[in-house]
Amino acid sequence: xxxxxxxxxxxRRALRGTLALGAALALGGxxxxxxxxxxxxxxxxxxxxxxxxxxxxxxxxxxxxxxxxEVCTAGPTLPSDSPPVVVNTFAPSDSATFTPSPEQSVIAYxxxxxxxxxxxxxxxxxxxxxxxxxxxxxxxxxxxxxxxxELEWTRVGGSAECGGPGAAGPxxxxxxx
Length: 177
Known about the structure:
It comes from Glaciihabitans tibetensis. The chain is α+β, with helices and mostly antiparallel strands and 177 residues long.
């Protein structure tokens, strides 16, 4: 390689480095100039909850479920012979390879829980459906009461920039017997 070719190669490398540095400063400067600090959100994952109030005689109500587009949440528990839901968990050290650690977590399956005789709480993961159908079921799975509700969600944790858990309700479910 000739001396002039070496100088030209070195000049190109210097120019690329200068351009890369300039781009990094410009992008960082945009946040500074606009007054917006870059936001780093923590690991995200939460459960939204819908509160359901039973109006009327609640005896004989064994389960309450929430349905969206004919897909319903599970009941408070699975039959004892059902297998547990197992998921792989990530440890902070796994983030370099995006490979879960060999550790696994068992999730208690069930999205509806009875708070007291007249109040239920239904988890809907990170979804926040607008329109839902709420049903009360007897011990033998018969729908005793049903209502369609439009939900208004309120964030109860997290931040506006990163999101967080929400709550909706109470949805009134009238039992007539």
